[in-house]
C-alpha cells in the first residue's frame, strides 16, 4: 500500500510538471483525485490493510492527497499567470493611435421642423393626435363636406385601395374621428403623412406631410383663429413677423382664408425668397363649416371652431431656405449634414 502511494505521488507530480495548460492540469486532477481517480481506487483497498496499520496508512493517504493538491494549486496559479500575460501581449492597445470615428446621425429637416411646430402648439395647450394613413373615403371626403363628384376631389385625387378605402389626402380625417368621439372642447393638431397623385417637381410630391389643427368650443371666433396663427408665425419665424389673411374657399370651412407671413429674409421689402412680393403663403384656414359639425354629431348652434392646415415640407423649405423639395428625400448626406 505504501509503495503504491509513493509511486502514485511521484507519477502525479511528474505529470503536473509536464502540464502546459489549465485544461491538462484539470485532467490530471480528475485522473488522480477524482471520484474514479487512482487515489480513490487505492482507498478502496483499505479493507485489506491490517486494523493496526490503518491509521498510519490513512495518514500517508492524506499526506499524498495534500501534496498533490498543493503542487496542483501552484501549477494552476503559474499557468493562469502565463495565460494572462500572453493574452495581455496579444491584446495590447496603443493609446496613441487615433480613435475610430463614430458616425452619429441626427434629425432630418422635416423632423426638426415638425418638432418645432409641435413645441409651439403644445405650448399653447394643444394635444397631438395621430390617425390611420389608410382611411375610409367617408372620413377623408364626405365628413368634410366633400361629397361624391365634388370638384375638390379632383384637386386631391389620391390612391384608392378599393371604392371605399384610400390613402388619406389630408390629416383632417383625424379631426373627424376626434369630433365623432364627442369629447368637447377639442384643441388638437394632427401631424402625419398624406398622399396625392401629384407629379414630382421642386414643390410637389405624391407623398408629403401635413400638420392640421382644430379648435372647437363655445364662442370661438375668427379673431381667435387670427390671434392663434399670428402667435404661431411669430414663434416660428421671429417676433417681427406679420401676417395677412386672404379670402379663399375650402369645402370644410366657412369663411375660409389663406394666411401669408411677411418675408423673414427681407422683412417684407422683397427678395428672391418671397419672389419680390414681401409675403410668403404658408397655410390655409377657416371657421369649421356648420355641415361638418352636423355630420359628426356636434351641435352647430352651441359650438363653433376653426381649423388650419400646414404643409410641413413647406415650413422646412422656408425655414432652412431650401429651394427644391426633392432634396429632402434624396438621402444625400452632404445635404442632410447641413442641418
From TrEMBL:
PROSITE patterns: AA_TRNA_LIGASE_II. Its cofactor is Mg(2+). Pfam families: Phe_tRNA-synt_N, tRNA-synt_2d. Its main location: cytoplasm. It catalyses: tRNA(Phe) + L-phenylalanine + ATP = L-phenylalanyl-tRNA(Phe) + AMP + diphosphate + H(+). GO terms for cellular component: cytoplasm. One of its GO terms (biological process) is phenylalanyl-tRNA aminoacylation. Mg(2+) binds at residue 254. SUPFAM superfamilies: Class II aaRS and biotin synthetases, tRNA-binding arm. Keywords: Aminoacyl-tRNA synthetase, ATP-binding, Cytoplasm, Ligase, Magnesium, Metal-binding, Nucleotide-binding, Protein biosynthesis. Tetramer of two alpha and two beta subunits. HAMAP family: Phe_tRNA_synth_alpha1. This is Phenylalanine--tRNA ligase alpha subunit. It comes from Lachnospira pectinoschiza.
Amino acid at each position: 500500500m505504501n509503495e503504491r502511494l509513493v509511486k502514485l505521488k511521484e507519477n502525479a507530480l511528474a505529470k503536473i510538471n509536464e502540464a502546459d495548460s489549465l485544461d491538462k492540469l484539470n485532467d490530471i486532477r480528475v485522473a488522480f483525485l477524482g471520484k474514479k481517480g487512482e487515489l480513490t481506487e487505492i482507498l478502496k483497498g483499505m479493507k485489506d490493510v491490517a486494523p493496526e496499520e490503518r491509521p498510519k496508512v490513512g495518514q500517508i493517504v492524506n499526506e499524498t492527497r495534500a501534496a498533490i493538491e498543493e503542487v496542483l494549486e501552484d501549477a494552476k496559479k503559474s499557468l493562469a499567470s502565463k495565460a494572462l500575460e500572453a493574452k495581455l501581449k496579444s491584446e495590447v492597445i496603443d493609446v496613441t493611435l487615433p480613435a475610430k470615428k463614430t458616425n452619429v446621425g441626427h434629425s432630418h429637416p422635416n423632423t426638426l421642423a415638425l418638432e418645432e411646430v409641435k413645441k409651439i402648439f403644445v405650448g399653447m395647450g394643444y394635444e397631438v393626435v395621430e390617425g390611420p394613413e389608410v382611411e375610409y373615403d367617408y372620413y377623408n371626403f364626405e365628413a368634410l363636406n366633400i361629397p361624391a363628384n365634388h370638384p375638390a376631389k379632383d384637386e386631391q385625387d389620391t390612391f384608392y385601395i378599393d371604392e371605399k378605402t384610400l390613402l388619406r389626402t389630408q390629416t383632417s380625417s383625424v379631426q373627424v374621428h376626434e369630433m365623432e368621439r364627442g369629447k368637447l372642447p377639442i384643441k388638437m393638431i394632427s401631424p402625419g403623412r398624406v398622399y396625392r397623385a401629384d407629379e414630382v417637381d421642386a414643390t410637389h410630391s405624391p407623398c408629403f406631410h401635413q400638420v392640421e389643427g382644430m379648435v372647437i368650443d363655445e364662442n370661438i371666433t375668427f379673431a381667435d383663429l387670427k390671434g392663434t396663427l399670428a402667435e404661431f408665425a411669430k414663434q416660428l419665424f421671429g417676433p417681427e413677423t406679420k401676417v395677412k389673411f386672404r379670402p379663399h374657399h375650402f369645402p370644410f370651412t366657412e369663411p375660409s382664408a389663406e394666411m401669408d407671413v411677411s418675408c423673414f429674409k427681407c422683412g417684407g421689402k422683397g427678395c428672391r425668397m418671397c419672389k419680390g412680393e414681401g409675403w410668403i403663403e404658408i397655410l390655409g384656414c377657416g371657421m369649421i363649416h356648420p355641415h361638418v359639425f352636423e355630420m359628426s354629431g356636434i351641435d352647430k348652434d352651441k359650438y363653433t371652431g376653426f381649423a388650419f392646415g400646414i404643409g410641413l415640407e413647406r415650413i422646412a423649405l422656408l425655414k432652412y431656405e431650401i429651394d427644391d423639395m426633392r432634396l429632402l428625400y434624396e438621402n444625400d448626406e452632404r445635404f442632410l449634414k447641413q442641418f
